[in-house]
Structure formats: C-alpha cells, structure tokens
Amino acid sequence: MKHIKTKYEILRQKTYILIHGSGTIAGKTFDLILLGVILLSLLLIMMASISKFDNKYHSFFYISEWIITVFFSIEYILRIISNKKPLSYIFSFYGVVDLLSLLPMYLSFFIPGSEVLGVIRTLRLLRLFAILDLIPILNQSSHIKESLRASMNKIIVFVYFVIVMSIVLGTIMFMVEGGHNGFSNIPNSIYWCIVTMTTVGYGDIAPITPIGKTIASFIMIMGYGIIAVPTGIVTAELSRNRKSKDIKNNCPRCKTYIYNEFANYCYNCGEKLIDGTVEIN
Amino acid sequence: MKHIKTKYEILRQKTYILIHGSGTIAGKTFDLILLGVILLSLLLIMMASISKFDNKYHSFFYISEWIITVFFSIEYILRIISNKKPLSYIFSFYGVVDLLSLLPMYLSFFIPGSEVLGVIRTLRLLRLFAILDLIPILNQSSHIKESLRASMNKIIVFVYFVIVMSIVLGTIMFMVEGGHNGFSNIPNSIYWCIVTMTTVGYGDIAPITPIGKTIASFIMIMGYGIIAVPTGIVTAELSRNRKSKDIKNNCPRCKTYIYNEFANYCYNCGEKLIDGTVEIN
Amino acid sequence: MKHIKTKYEILRQKTYILIHGSGTIAGKTFDLILLGVILLSLLLIMMASISKFDNKYHSFFYISEWIITVFFSIEYILRIISNKKPLSYIFSFYGVVDLLSLLPMYLSFFIPGSEVLGVIRTLRLLRLFAILDLIPILNQSSHIKESLRASMNKIIVFVYFVIVMSIVLGTIMFMVEGGHNGFSNIPNSIYWCIVTMTTVGYGDIAPITPIGKTIASFIMIMGYGIIAVPTGIVTAELSRNRKSKDIKNNCPRCKTYIYNEFANYCYNCGEKLIDGTVEIN
Amino acid sequence: MKHIKTKYEILRQKTYILIHGSGTIAGKTFDLILLGVILLSLLLIMMASISKFDNKYHSFFYISEWIITVFFSIEYILRIISNKKPLSYIFSFYGVVDLLSLLPMYLSFFIPGSEVLGVIRTLRLLRLFAILDLIPILNQSSHIKESLRASMNKIIVFVYFVIVMSIVLGTIMFMVEGGHNGFSNIPNSIYWCIVTMTTVGYGDIAPITPIGKTIASFIMIMGYGIIAVPTGIVTAELSRNRKSKDIKNNCPRCKTYIYNEFANYCYNCGEKLIDGTVEIN
C-alpha cells in the first residue's frame, strides 16, 4: 500500500507542494500570487473605508470583495485537503484567521451589513511573515525572536509593574485634579497615566492644577528612567546571545577554557568539538 | 514553657500559616481570595468614579464598599494578632497601606463625604507583588531589582541633572516667550520643559515665537541624547549582573581566575567553592 | 600618448584638484566657499518661505536665487568636465541632486511659478557630510556607519514588524472607534497607530470610547517594550565592533588567542601581526 | 617672606577656607547657608513670576530680592578677594554667572524694569553641582561624565545627522503640505520635523494631507530607529568604562594577561602594579 498512490493522493501531494513547497517554481509563483492578492485585498479594504471613494466606486469594491473572497475560499479548501492533518491546520492561528476573513462576506447573505467585518482580513497580512521568510534576509529574525523569548519573563514583570504604577498614580491624579480637566473618572486617569509614562503624550488630557502638574512631572521623569529597563533587558539578552555564538569559550564536557577557536578537540579532556563550535550552556 | 502551646498560641500559628504560608493549600486559597477581593474592590472604586454608573447604582456601590471594608478589617486584625511582632507589621509599608485603606469608610461616620478617600485602597494593589511572588516566573524580578538598586546612585545624579536643566531652561523659555502662550509663569515653563525633555510632549503649552521654537528644538535634541544615559546605566548594570551569574571567574578567597566552571575547589588556595558557583565580588 | 598632456588635460586636472583635492589650499578654500554658499542659499530659501519677508524683499530674494543658481551651474559644469568619468558623476546621488537643484530656476522661464521647486536645493545640504568629512572628528562616523550597516537586516525585519502591527491594530481601532473621532478611515487609523507606537503622540487623533482607550493603552505599553529592540540591536553591534578594535584576541591566520597586546608575531604560527593589531574576523 | 603672613593674608586664608574648605565645619555651614539662600532666591523668583502672587506681595518680593542681592554681592566680593588668582575666578563660568545674577538689580536704578532680568539668577542653581559634590553619592557622576566625554564626538556626528535630516525632511513636508496646516514656512516645518523625530510630538503642527501623513509615518519610524544610536553609543562606552575598572587584564608594561586580580607584580615582567589595579589603555 505504501508505494501505491491513488490519483487523489498524487493530486493532494501536488497541491501540497504548490502551497508549501516554496523551493519549487510552482510553489514560489503561488506564494507571490498569494502575496499580491493579500496586498490588493488590503488596499481595497483601505480605500473602501474612505467614504469619498466608497460613495463613487461602491459596486466596484463590492464585486472585488467577492472575487477575492472566492479566491481565498478556494485557497482555504486547498489548504485543508492538501494537508495530511487537516484539523491541525484548521485550528492553527493561520487557519482561524483564514476562516474568519471569509465568513463575513458569506454571513452578509443572512445578516445584511455584516460584510463590514471583512476588515478582519487584514490579519491575513501576518501571513506575509511566513511568505517572506523565503527571503534569506529575514532569517535574521530568529535571532531576535530567541532573545525576546528569553527576556519575555522579565518583560512581563516589567509590564506588570508599569500597569500597577499606572493604576496607583492614575487614582492619585483623579483625586488631585478633582474629576475635572479630562480626569473625569479613574479609568480615564489611568489611561492618561499610561499615555504619560510611555512618553506618548497626546495632550487630550493634561493636568491643570499646580499639584497635578508637579505629580505629572514626577511621573514623566520616572517614566523616562523606566524606559531604560526593557531596553536594558533586551540589550543584555541580545549581547549574550551573540557572545555564545561569536566566541568559543568552554569545552562542553570538562568546561576547560579553550583558547584556540579552531580547535577540533578539547586540549584537556579530548572531547570532540562539534563543527568546531563550543557552546556556553 | 517552650514546648507548651496554649490554645491561643496554636490558633495564632494556624492563622499565621493561613496568611503567610503560601506553600500550604489553605494559604494558597487565602491568597487567591484576597487577590480576588482586591481586584473586585478596585473595579468597584473605578466604576463608582464614573458618574454615569454612580448615579444609577449608588446604593449598590455603597453597600459593596462596606462589605469589602469589613472583610479587609478582619484581615487587618488577623494579620496583627497572628504576627509575633505586631508592631513591625503595623508600621511596615503594607501595614500603613492596609490601615489607610480602611480608615476613610469609618471616618465617614463622623465626617460625611470622607468616604471618597477610599480610593487610597488602590495602593493595596501593590500587595499583588507579594502575592504573585508565588509564581516562579516573578522570581526574575529580583535580578532586575538588584540591577536597579546598584544603578540607583547614578540614576539619582541623572534625575538631579534633568531637574536642574529643566529649571534653567524653563526660566530661559519664560523670558523668551514673554509670559504668553501658556508660558505664563516660571513653574509652568519648567513643567513644559520637563514635558519636552522627557519627549512626552502634550502640546498644551508650545512655543510660538521663532526664538522659542529654536530653543525648544535644542532642548528636544538634547533630551533625545540624554535619554541614552539611564538606558546605558541600567543596561551596563544588567549585563554585569548577568556576567557574574553566567561565568564563574574567581575564587572568593584568593580571587584567582578559575577556568573550570565545574571546579569544586580553587586550584590556587584550595577554597571550597559553594554549589560550584564562584561570585565576582 | 600617456605622458603627453594637452592644455585641456592640465586644466581638467587642476579643476579636479580644486574640487576634490581637499588636502590642498585651493581645494580647501573651494570647499569652504561652497559650504558658505550652500548655507547662504539655504538661509535665503528659508526666509523666502516666510510670507512676511517675501512680501517685503521679493526682488532681493529673486535676484539672489539667480546669482546662486548661476554659481551652482558653473560648479556643476566644472564637476562634469573635470571628472574622468563624467557619467558616473551625473548619475550618482550627488550628481542628480546638483542637477535637480538647478532645474527649477531654468524651468521657470517656460513654466512660470516652477521656481518654488527650488527648495529641492536643500538636499544639497547633504553634501556637507562630504565636505565636513575633512574634519577629523567626523571620521568617527565610519564606526557608527559600520555598526548600522551590520544591523541593517535586523532593523528591516523590525520595521517590517512595526508596519504589519500598525496595519492590523489600526484596522481594529477603525472598527472599534466606529469611524468617528478622527479614525475616519483605515489609512488614518494606521497613521494614528504609527504615531502612537513610536511614542510621538500628536493628539490630533485620540481614542474616545472606553474600548478604544483600552486598546490604545495596550498598544502604547507594547510600543514601549518594542522600542527596546532596535536599541538592543544597535548597542550589541556597537559593543561588538568596539571589542574587535580594543582587544587583540586572535592571530588572523591560525586564530590562536594572543595574550600580549603588543605582540608582533603570533606565538603559535609565526604570522606577522600588522601594526600590532589583531582583528576578530 | 614665605613664613610671614600679614593680617590681611591670614584673613584672606580664613575666608578662603570658609568658602572653599568644605571639609571644615565653618566651610560646611557656609555651603549649606549658600545652598539655602540659592533655593530661597529661586523660590521667590518663581513665585514672583506668577502674576496672582506678584499683585498681592509685590513689595515683599521687591525687598527680598534686594536682601538676596546684597547677600550675593558680599559673597561675590569675598570670593574675589579670597582667591589668589581673582581673575581666573571672575572669568570662570561660575564667576560670570555670579556677576550676571547681581547686575540686573543694580541696573534697575538706571534702567527701570531691568530687574526682571534677575531670573538669570536661576543659573546659580548650577552651583548646586559643586556644593552637593560633597555628598559621596554624587561622586558617581564622574563615571558618567567620563563616558559622555568619550562618546561626545560620536554624539556630535549623530546630532549633526539629525539636524541635516530635519532640514531636508522639513523642506519636503513644506512642499507637500503646501504652506497650510501650520507648515506655514520652512523654519516651522523644520521645527515640526525635530518635534517628530525626537518623538516629542506636541501636535500644534500636524500633517493633514494623505501624502504628508505617509511621509510623517516614515519620519516617525525612522526616528524610532535612530533613537537607538545615541543609546547604543553611551551604553557601549559605559560598559567599556566599567570593564576597565572591574577586571584587571593586562600588565601596563608588557601587556601580559594577568589572571590573579590581587597580584602586586606582573608574573611575567615583574612590573609593580600600582594599587593592585591594572589599566587597559
């Protein structure tokens, strides 16, 4: 049975190669067309959101939406049937996004107006990450991803700290500014505090009383110092990551410091050094 | 006397375990309930601050406040009696916060309206740090705390410099903008200068005269460069801290450089290396 | 033929030295005059753009523009004829800028009003980089340039990520804020998202609905953390670059670690170390 | 002559100790009083700038100003006569600031209204740096100062780049936004560009046309990446500085790598290591 492939099996495999085989010409072409259609679809959604254009070309946008929806529907079905484990695709992040970007148009038969939810299709743009991973340049991202994953715990602690400080300081500002000047309630004051601590500073809410301004100044200078923390964490992680790759330091077995970078064997214990690289654990 | 425990003693110990013993099931449950009540109380305070909700559900908010106040009062008393050194708790940071978050409601019997000070309860949110310290992820924070403490002196120098510069430049801007355009007095101008140097930039006060704009541009570019300083300090500290943990370098006694990371004794003076780790002093 | 120089050849060489020979007195003088004229021309364009000045001194600005245009035209022709490969200059970045800064004035004979395009001349200011490279201080820039080039790939990945996130989050905000409050269409919402993530925060568009403010807070805190990534990348690159210059580590031939910083020969393979410096590959 | 001190000489020396001898009790007291008077004078200037207070307590402010002016005048004269090289003090930065903070009040006899220039006294606040240098904590600043001085050249290159980019991009924005929307002239557009690139973002000027918004987005993302450069420079410098202090690496004479941190002599060439520290040149 293993060697006998039904016609369907062969077709499925061909489809799989078409969709996933970015190394083949057919696969590359498919990826580029998909990339183009996603970008086009995005452009159409953006332009349709501008009322000036929508009033003029409404039917054009409507028909285009349907053509793109049909195209994406076919792609969605192909992805399911070509996959050996269709369920793992359907419930993957990309699978859910692909489905959600189709549904609104079909739903609009039953619930008129629901086609506006088509904007959810924008999320398909994230697939660009997958498609563009072909280009060697983007392989670099794995290094950054690794560092970010390693510093995730610390970033979470930091974000938690920022949120608690925002709640506490936001409440204090609400008491100080006495519910006026945009500080109309505590959630609004917390929102203002986040806007201030992150140094965004819209200015839609700004303190007016002298005490409020003094506290705000204190928050800003604190936020200015706090911005150093995530930067420090990521930088330390990136430097460390780099180091483990750049400099061969220790034998993985006896941990002896190895001077000769091109050593093939540890000079102390004779451990074979794989690929001439020694990792810091 | 040492081995004889009165009924009260046993009860106190049980209470202590309930409150502080986060390793036991009872302690964990207590912590989670406390966490929930704090978050709930916070949510109620926030919603009560929104006048739309307050007008509608005023009595609901009022009753809830009292229930939570009673709950916190019981917890406060338990904390005092269960502690062997009650005074050290009462005058600790958490003790003062716990008391301050109860007082306003009781004071409102004598001074009507003082219950609005209940918002001070938000500070109890800081206890989340203590509660969530259970979760191993947050143990990471000790590393950051350590680095921040080590770089505190330099950050203070830096903040002092920023404040002096803000006062000097704020005064200059007051002279330049001639007391108009929001630069109505020196404190306001200083406030504007801090808003600008920290790159928050509300825009509630902005220079209008050409000279004012030129000086402002200078301040911004300076502030842009200055932001590098705290970041540099913290990053250098974090990298250093990491190094002392990652690489075993020196014998704690004779400071001889040790190559073998898994060494148990210093090869020079024979000092026993605890847990196979060598600290950089 | 090689040794015989026509009068024209000699003239061309002299012109070449005048323009490019920043080591000679004539070349230096030429550079300084050019620097002065570019700055003057810039000042005139700026002042002419202020309607108050333009109304008063219009003819003065007009005549000055023509004098400067003639000066730059002569310089442009000299650069072409003095260059051995005139085409490589004409199609270089500076060549195109030089031409574009001349055209508008000449075009204004045929198309009245096109002289306002003269502002393109501002781009000539970039030549200051070339001119000021004389000053030794600026040689430092090569170090930064090198680090930036090395981290370019990672920065591109990062910028791509920021743009995708802005499109996705911008679309979500458009849906949430319902097309009001400045979030009038998707491109505007994306613009707002970039303004927020980069912590610029003009405040011309700001969320008003509670859900919008919550999402905005999330975007800000995320953006606050994200700012760490490019900083980390560049810092790691700069530190690495510095290291390769500061510490002599390995023999360029056999990569043996070399202790003696002033070593002239590798102690292992006898490789001559140029200038006493050893580079890390 | 060397050992004979006239009465005047002794008085001068006593005054010198009073002013400069921060180690003595008298000197410390003098410093603290001076600190207090400077802060008081600052507070008075600030309050006098608030028209509400000035209207009420004008004569009080006026008299206080005179008392402080007299106090500072005496201090100024003492500083001159106690110094062995009076001219070096008079023309030093502090000397000029001290004089400039006195002049306005005396000038107001001849030119009424010139006393408002008294705000220049704020610059005296910079003397706090000198006074507070007593406190050991602030000795840390020397480390930061050193790093900043070392990275000054690079920061200058960077600031120069930011300014050129601001001029070029500001001019482009002036052309794009067509002189409206606050981009009324080129200097204003440059000002806007600096406000944007430094992520301050007041919002007093903001692009309105779609092209303007697109360019602005590009500027912001660029500025976001550029902020990494000064941070990277300072961080690399601070890390380097720290390293040269933390780790003893090489003998200053033969540059041999020294393992033992507490070595008093280089184990290779016998060079005496001063204070047990070895500097990396």
TrEMBL record, chains A, B, C, D:
Gene3D superfamilies: 1.10.287.70, Voltage-gated potassium channels. Chain C
Subcellular location: Membrane
Keywords noted in UniProt: Ion channel, Ion transport, Membrane, Potassium, Potassium channel, Potassium transport, Transmembrane, Transmembrane helix, Transport, Voltage-gated channel
Keyword Transport: yes
TM region positions: 32-53, 59-78, 90-111, 155-176, 215-238
Keyword Membrane: yes
A single Gene Ontology CC term: voltage-gated potassium channel complex
Record-level Gene Ontology MF annotations: voltage-gated potassium channel activity
A GO BP entry: action potential
Record InterPro entries: Ion_trans_dom, VG_K_chnl, Volt_channel_dom_sf
Subcellular location, principal: membrane
Domain Ion transport, chain residue ranges per copy: 28-244
Membrane topology qualifier: Multi-pass membrane protein
The protein's name in its UniProt record: Voltage-gated potassium channel
Origin species: Paenimyroides marinum
Lineage, broadest ranks: Bacteria, Pseudomonadati, Bacteroidota, Flavobacteriia, Flavobacteriales
